[in-house]
Every structure is written in structure tokens, then in C-alpha cells.
Sequence to fold (250 residues):
Amino acid sequence: MLVALVVVIPRTPGWDRVRASFFDREIFVETFPKLLDAFVLDLQILAWSAPAIFVLSILLALARGVRSPALFPLRAFGAIYVDVFRGIPVILVITLIGFGVPTGLGLPRPWNSPLLWGSVALILSYSAYVAEVIRAGIDSVHESQRAAARSLGMTSTQTMRSIVLPQALRRVVPPLMNSFISLQKDVALVSLLGPVEVLRRANIEQARLFNFTPYVGAAVIFLSITIPATRLADHLMARQRRRTGGTTVG
Fold:
């Protein structure tokens, strides 16, 4: 199928116009270094957002899993948080928080930074998704593990910290990798608030040159990160299936 597309598409009547608009070699060579420089900002946002998402997600997953009736408000808060932020598109969360919070509170610099509030929006939104992944991992740990810990005199906190959570996190590494890949792409949405990261730089270059090749260059940069990360996620999933006795797909 792919070979047919490669052979047929260049023979279509409009291919020359498409090639000139999207695959101009000179424009690609000219703009690609600028796109790489802008991509550094994407990596920086990813670097400080991913750990914060992981920590907040664990706290939310633990809150949703509390069993004590006295802690029901905490469990309810976790459920409401997840329902709200999973129900709102990421791009809308970024817009609401990135524009709304600094404007509504009248914050001075540097507290009105779009990088700050764009990152906060990503953290709030993605933690809702990742929390459910971690909660599923916690629920997958058999109840006998908790019973064995209680028989040894361990408290609920000690059981969760030393027995349940380590097993749960190992089991959800592959889906966590998938969430990381999605986050790496959605970092570009912060450009809506103004920072010149790779997508905004591609937009600037497209407007300057009246050509869409810079967008193709940005896509190449994202693919150079997401494809290896996807292959790593596939490898981790296959290894997880082997460890649990499942069959692997060749």
C-alpha cells in the first residue's frame, strides 16, 4: 500500500504544487535549524512538567483509593478532579488557565508568564489521565498482598508505600510511556499563549515564506522523538506480557 502511494501520488496532476508548498528543499534547509532551536523550549517544558505530573498523579490515585470513611472527602475530591480535567480538552484548559488566571488575578511579572501557566495547565490536565493509569495499577495488585502485609503488622501506609505501589508502578510503565509520548506532542499547545516553541516558530516561518514546508520540518522533529519513544513503549509492553505469562506478537 505504501509503495503504491509513493508511486502514484507523484504522478497526480497537482503533485508539483504540493511539492512546492510542502516539500521545498531550500526552505527546509533554511528553517530547520531555527525549528531545532525552538524545540529546545518544548523539551524544557516537558522536563519540568513530566515529574510534576507523575507526583500529582500518584497523590490523586492514592486519594481515589482511600478506604477509610473518614477520608471520604479526599476520595470525592480525587474523583471530581479526575472527572473535570478528563472531561475538558487539553487545549481548552491551556486557554482558560493561560489567559484567564494571569488576567483575572492581575499578576505582575514574572508570575504572569505564559510558560508558567501553560505548564500548570498541562500538569493539571495530564495528571487526571495518568492518575487513572496508576489507580488501575494499584487495583491490579491482588488483595492477598495487603493481607500478607497486615499479617506482618504493617500499617496501611507502610503497605501502600512498600508493597502495593512499587508493584503497581512496574505494571503501568508501558501505558505511562504512552502518556509521556502524548504529553511530548501536546507541549506544542503552549504556543497558543505566545511562547515561541517549535510550532509557533513553524507558524512564523510559514507566514514569512508563504510556504508550508516549516510545518513539515516541525513534524520531522516531533517524529524523531515520538517514534523511538513508541518503539520503547512497545518493547516494555512486550516484556510485561512475557513476565506475566502472556503471548507476544511477532
About this structure: The CA atoms of residues 174 and 236 lie 6 Å apart.
